[in-house]
Specification:
mainly alpha, two-stranded antiparallel sheet, 6 helices, 4 strands, 8% strand, flat
């Protein structure tokens, strides 16, 4: 039963009781109409107003959503996501640390003879190969050796197989494998704790 109906019934009961009491006291309703109306109608009006205003008061007392959010426990902040280029920079730093790859690639080798360059690159090759194999497991995109005849199936992914030469018609294609390609089967690049990832190699100063 709604609060308004309950209020109306309560007002009728109280007002009717007052009417009965006035009759017992011998009050003539015709001669004392204002007084009778006030005594009998006031309870009905009061209970009706109470029923109408109580839900609004209760709603006003309820905490606002913002207040509820303020009382709720704070969620932990998400961990910062490392930019993807930092992983590549760490790998480059490892290749520099093991084989001084950055030094070799940024040096002008024009003045050196082929024999000098060849002798220098042998050590760089061995050191960088060791570092790369430690962090990245590589696999060929296509099985086979260079100069083997291979078939490129229909529906191949152009991002994994690049066609060159006289390409006509629709796959499957037959051709000569010029390079098997590489793909990273797995990669584990260890973090460099406490170091700025943009620093590939720190400067070295020898104090005399």
């Amino acid at each position: 039963m709604s609060p308004i109906v309950v209020a109306l019934l309560l007002g009728v009961v109280v007002g009717g009781g007052n009417w009965w009491a006035l009759g017992q006291l011998g009050v003539d309703p015709q001669t004392a109409m204002p007084f009778v109306a006030a005594i009998c109608g006031a309870p009905l009006l009061a209970t009706l107003l109470t029923a109408l205003t109580a839900p609004k008061a209760a709603a006003g007392a309820a905490p606002e959503p913002a207040a509820k959010a303020a009382l709720a426990p704070a969620k932990p902040s998400p961990k910062p996501v490392e930019p993807p280029e930092h992983t590549a920079l760490r790998l480059l730093a490892a290749l520099q640390e093991e084989g001084r790859l950055v030094d070799f690639l940024t040096e002008d080798i024009g003045p050196y003879s082929d024999e000098q360059v060849g002798a220098a690159t042998r050590g760089i090759h061995a050191s960088c190969a060791k570092a790369l194999q430690s962090y990245v497991r590589l696999e060929p995109v296509l099985a086979g050796k260079e100069e083997d005849t291979v078939t490129v199936p229909a529906g191949f992914d152009p991002a994994t197989i690049r066609l060159t030469g006289n390409v006509q018609g629709q796959p499957p294609f037959k051709g000569v494998l010029r390079h098997p390609g590489w793909k990273a089967a797995s990669a584990t690049i260890p973090p460099r704790a406490g170091l700025d990832p943009r620093i590939i190699a720190p400067a070295e100063v020898e104090i005399a």
